[in-house]
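Structure request: Major facilitator superfamily (MFS) profile domain-containing protein, Lactobacillus gigeriorum DSM 23908 = CRBIP 24.85.
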Amino acid sequence: MAKTNQLSAAWYKAFYVLWLGCFITGMGYSMTMPFISLFIADLGNYSKLQINLYSGLAFAMTFVAQAIVSPYWGNLADRKGRKLMCMRASGVMALTITLTGLAPNALYIVIMRFIQGAFSGYINNATALMASETPHQKSGWVMSQMMTAGTAGNLVGPLLGGALSSFFGNLLGGAWGYRIPFFITGALMFIVFLSTTFLVYEDFKPISREKMKPMKDIMAGLPSLKLIVAMFITTMIVQASTLSIDPIVSLYVKSLMPHSNNIAFVAGIVAATPGLGTLLAASKIGHKMDEVGPLKVLKIGLITGFILFIPMALTNSPWTLASLRFLLGMASAGMMPAAQAVLTLNTPAESFGRIFSYNQSFQASGAMLGSMLGSTISGIFDYATIFWITGLTLLINFVIVVALGKNSQK
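Returned structure:
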């Protein structure tokens, strides 16, 4: 596909199909995960400790598998193309999510989640595909739009999943209320598989294994190796800072309003506001990236995120917290997409798959690190401490980006 200002109809069709695929993938994940502990509790006579343990494993296994397997899939993507990887991820996700709905016990769910993680990567491969097909002058906007797809799905998913669980729970009774959303998600992912297969065109010529450069040679030949490493670190830290807050949001809100009867409702608002901020700001920030360069936007996003975490740790109002998290969501639109845009501009086309797969491994590692960090620190100290530490990690990230990216013009 020609990299010109006049983008073809095939390019736009691929963009819309992949955007919708990322939206459904994000929605499918968030639609089933919020009530996974309730589903597990319905599958047997488990103790509270066992339910918490299995729920934690079901959450973590996906990221563990992603971190381990992503480099292999990246190598295959560089030989066979990103479209095939999107087909693989959506097809297996359709199967594993449907099978999870048939779970007889908690261990079965953990195993299915591990398999799903091992074959996952639709959003990352769709992003890499669009990065390779997009003219550089539009890469900032495209990376931002691809991020909004998953973010929008994550916002819609819990609402849809909760509504479906309640409806079918009342209609069919028992665990079927929790099983039906898995079947619906599986069907939607199968539609994503079909649309990706038949509607997405990728201008890619397969490369034989013998002609591929070893990863160490690619890394050694990168024009800005330090900058690539800085983006890997940024992906990990930004993802960790996002998920470190998630496990404690409702508890933190409860500590701010202990006598309220609307804690769940307010906590839901506080949890949703970052995604809303990201959605509203992504397009504007994406265009700004294309004007001034993603590295400048990334630096502003990191320092803004650091500043916003300070009043979060000090506030006594859940509504102030929600407002600050809304602003944090806007800042986030200038962090992860900017890091991906920097990778796009500094990675040769023949190694896109492997570089983005390593980035996915760092992202999965950040998800594991963030969840452990938030739960551990808030358990040992208080809820506010995690905000201080998370803000500090973003400041350290800012220093790393400034230090390693000072010689880059991108």
